[in-house]
TrEMBL record:
The record marks Y141, K192 as: Important for catalysis. Its EC number is 1.1.1.85. One of its GO terms (molecular function) is magnesium ion binding. Pathway: Amino-acid biosynthesis; L-leucine biosynthesis; L-leucine from 3-methyl-2-oxobutanoate: step 3/4. Keywords: Amino-acid biosynthesis, Branched-chain amino acid biosynthesis, Cytoplasm, Leucine biosynthesis, Magnesium, Manganese, Metal-binding, NAD, Oxidoreductase. This is 3-isopropylmalate dehydrogenase. One of its GO terms (cellular component) is cytosol. InterPro entries: IsoCit/isopropylmalate_DH_CS, IsoPropMal-DH-like_dom, Isopropylmalate_DH.
């Protein structure tokens, strides 16, 4: 059965890096007989320029209809002075909320060839391959009531509410267990069980769910310890699952273990496994249009898309192997360049991945 992919290049380096990922997707589409169809639409600043809004109705309906979405990045100085509601980022937030993309998957993979890019010792991070599953649409970032109020004594008080319902915990838990099943079958749930009732319930539900996934080894860890362990011995982890705020912090920490933002993919999925896939980096306006951006994070996002939304594990693995091969060949874009390697452009990197496939 044919499946549809919506390409949303966006702004800045977005169109340059999505073009390379599209070539790679079209190639594996042929090689593996995937029957993917492709469409593209405007989002972010480019949508504002063309239609006046960051998420045109047409884009939203194409996104709803697609099996998966590949996004470049949005934003740039041109649109920085617009009022909040009309900023390019609203296009992304609109897609996340309209499609109910509650599960954010962020792998932190450090190809051994790039171990010197990390600020940690190569032996601590070389070969690192973990995934953080972060709940994206609930928790303290969305809980009500929230605000800043004035107390009777005239002092101001800021307040937020940390809430998770059982169903919210269960659905992110299932994504995490299933992700672990597709990998090394180890899941670490991160909470603050000793202080926060919300995470007492979180832990209870994770334990309950683990009965449905007997092949996955579940462990629990306090978030403060997890932050330490991630820099002490990150390779002890396979999949980590946690709430929105802890996940926000830990996934950035894990990303930085790898030292190269141009290499990191991400996925946001809903209950139907429909997903939006994008590099972790932004639109890099400082290098846009120069043909020097690293397209690998977007190409690796395409691999995640094949794995998690399009049921095409073999094609995903082939892309990941091809990326590893071009790194072995010593090909590097400027952001990951080091002595003794060959510097290539965005398009040359894309071509090299195609040739390695
Ligand atoms: P950024 O990630 O765009 O850039 C940070 C630095 O990393 C820059 O020096 C940039 O040149 C470099 N960089 C990023 N991606 C690269 C790549 N693929 N290859 C080589 N170098 C790369 O972050 P920023 O500068 O803080 O933000 C720029 C714009 O992007 C802003 O408008 C911001 O709002 C937007 N942004 C968008 C997203 C998104 O679309 N998901 C995420 C973050 C930032």
């Amino acid at each position: 059965m044919s499946k549809s992919v919506l390409l949303l290049p966006g702004d800045g380096i977005g169109p340059e890096i999505v073009a390379e990922a599209e070539k790679v997707l079209r190639k594996v589409n042929e090689q593996f007989g995937l029957e993917l169809t492709f469409d593209s639409a405007l989002v972010g600043g480019s949508a504002i320029d063309a239609t006046g809004v960051p998420l045109p109705e047409e884009t939203l309906s194409s996104a709803r209809a697609a099996d998966a979405i590949l996004l470049g990045a949005v934003g740039g100085p041109k649109w920085d002075d617009l009022e909040m509601a009309r900023r390019p980022e609203k296009g992304l937030l609109g897609l996340r909320s309209n499609l109910e993309l509650f599960a954010n998957l962020r792998p932190a993979i450090l190809y051994p060839q790039l171990a010197s890019a990390s600020s940690l010792k190569p032996e601590v991070v070389s070969g690192l391959d973990i995934v953080i599953v972060r709940e994206l649409t609930g928790g303290i970032y969305f809980g009500q009531p929230r605000g800043i109020r004035e107390l009777e004594n005239g002092e101001r008080q800021g307040y937020n509410t940390y809430v998770y319902s059982e169903s919210e915990i269960r659905r992110i838990g299932r994504v995490a267990f299933e992700t672990a099943q597709q990998r090394n079958k180890k899941l670490c749930s991160v909470d603050k069980h000793n202080v926060l009732e919300v995470t007492v319930l979180w832990r209870e539900i994770m334990d309950e769910l683990s009965k449905d996934y007997p092949d996955v080894e579940l462990s629990h860890m306090y978030v403060d310890n997890a932050a330490m362990q991630l820099v002490r011995a990150p390779k002890q982890f396979d999949v980590i699952v946690t709430g929105n705020m802890f996940g926000d912090i830990l996934s950035d920490e894990a990303a930085m273990l790898t030292g190269s933002i141009g290499m990191l993919p991400s996925a946001s999925m809903n209950a139907a496994k429909q997903g939006m896939y994008e590099p972790c980096h932004g639109s890099a306006p400082d290098i846009a249009g120069q043909g020097i951006a690293n397209p690998l994070a977007t190409i690796l996002s395409a691999a995640m898309m094949l794995r998690y939304s399009l049921d095409a594990e073999e094609a995903a693995k082939a892309i990941e192997a091809a990326v590893s091969k071009v790194l072995d060949q010593g090909l590097r874009t400027a952001d990951i360049m080091s002595e003794g390697n060959t510097r290539v452009s965005t398009a040359e990197m894309g071509e090299a991945v195609l040739a390695a496939l």
